[in-house]
Amino acid sequence: MKTTFIITSALNTQVGVYDLQTRLLQTHATIDSIYTVFKDANIILVDGGEPGEIRHPLWDQLRQRVHAYLDLTDNEQLQYLQQNFMRPERRHEMGGMVGLAKSLCELTIFYETLQVLKNTPEMAPFRDVERVFKISGRYQLSPLWRAEDYSRTTDRYVFKKSVPSWIPDALTQVGVDRYYSSRFWSFHINQLDTVIARYEDMIVDIHNVAEANKYLDVEHLLYKHLGPANSKELDYTHCMGTIAPNGTMIYD
After folding, report:
1. Rounded CA separation 238/33 (Å)
2. How far apart are CA 188 and CA 93, in angstroms?
3. For position 92, what pLDDT does the model report?
4. E strands along 156-230, which residues?
5. Distance between CA atoms of 210 and 192, rounded to whole angstroms?
6. I need a labelling partner for 101 at 20 to 30 A (CA). Which of 110, 120, 199, 219 fits?
7. CATH of the domain spanning 3-162+181-212+231-251
8. How far apart, in whole angstroms, are the C-alpha atoms of residue 198 and residue 225?
9. Which segments of the chain have a pLDDT < 50?
10. Tens digits of per-residue pLDDT, 150-180?
11. pTM confidence score
């Protein structure tokens, strides 16, 4: 299976418990895990963190290990969200305005990346694949990851099995009562245009919810707009890592 992996990251950020060096090391581990499974994978590294030059030998090495690097740190929307919501005093927050802003950052980063993937001539080799995987930077594929889980899925997204929403009265508040993990999921390259269109809908949706002073995140949006009817759900996607707000280990 020919693959493109999109690693989305915010390397320089004031949210969470990890400093820059730790984030760089964790992202190296992400790349290690991908190359363990797919030695010929195409890897795109995307950074949507705070603007500013990163000066660290681990960063120089990281750039050399991927096939494309997309710098979104100068994106105006991302800068606004970083400056107004991703503050040191809120580094441990989950949900609320920080969660809403983080989800909008994630949506913006991945949407902009998909536009580059689709419309840039130099990205043709990244489109000449069977499947595109999105993995959040700092997470890894576990040794139990199975390529056969993705066979015969030309018309399906692949997610970890959905779980019940934690939002009170979610069906009324956000329109769905389940959500998908956004850390690691994938789509067939034939679905690229559809995914872009759905992300446009998701961005409109989260803005409308924010204006109504309600909460919504990317996990619920993935379930709402991509949906179980179009998805293959796995008991485990075998993606693992620690969440940034408190360092808790997660195994999907």
Report:
1. 11
2. 34
3. 43
4. 157-160, 163-164, 178-179, 184-188
5. 27
6. 120
7. 3.90.550
8. 6
9. 88-94
10. 987 889 999 999 999 998 899 988 899 999 9
11. 0.92
Cα dist. 224→102, 201, 208, 252 in Å?
Answer: 18, 10, 15, 20
Question: CB–CB of 98/15 below 8 Å?
Answer: yes
Q: Are strands 239-242 and 140-141 parallel, antiparallel or unpaired?
A: antiparallel
- Across 185-198, b (16+ Cβ under 10 Å) vs e yields bbbbbebeeebbeb
**Where in the chain are the domains?**
3-162+181-212+231-251
- Coarse DSSP helix, strand, coil percentages of the chain, rounded to the nearest 5 percent: 45, 20, 35
Map residue 192 onto helix, strand or coil: helix
